[in-house]
Amino acid sequence: MTYELDRNQHSVFSLHYHLVMVVRQRRGVIDHTVSVRLQEIFEHISPNYAISLQNWHSDIDYVYVYFKAEPKTELSKFINAYKSASSRLIKKEFVHMKESLFEETFWSHSYALMSSGTLSDETIQNYVATQRH
């Protein structure tokens, strides 16, 4: 299996991750418009953490994200910053959603983060893209 390696001034690396975030109480509030906005927020915040979005897919109560990172990336800080900012912005921009949310909390406190390991990028991206099917 061949990996394309990334480089920076001090290292060579291949750090790919699969992130799954769930809406609190699985309230089923992510439609196409909300998904697009969540992705925009992700893409706006991610460069500050040396993260690059590779693939995005959502279902009504899940977001599946495949991304690359650098060795200096603090993943838990990024995820917490993203969940906080996106929750705040989504509740502000989609006011009608407050009725559907549990205690006005958008995301579940937990998330799943997995490194791509020995799976190929293509396999993971295909998985992320076909979750609804």
TrEMBL record:
It comes from the Bacteria. InterPro entries: Transposase_17 (IPR002686), Transposase_17_sf (IPR036515). One of its GO terms (biological process) is DNA transposition. Residues 12-131 form the Transposase IS200-like domain. GO terms for molecular function: DNA binding; transposase activity. This is Transposase. It comes from Leuconostoc kimchii (strain IMSNU 11154 / KCTC 2386 / IH25).
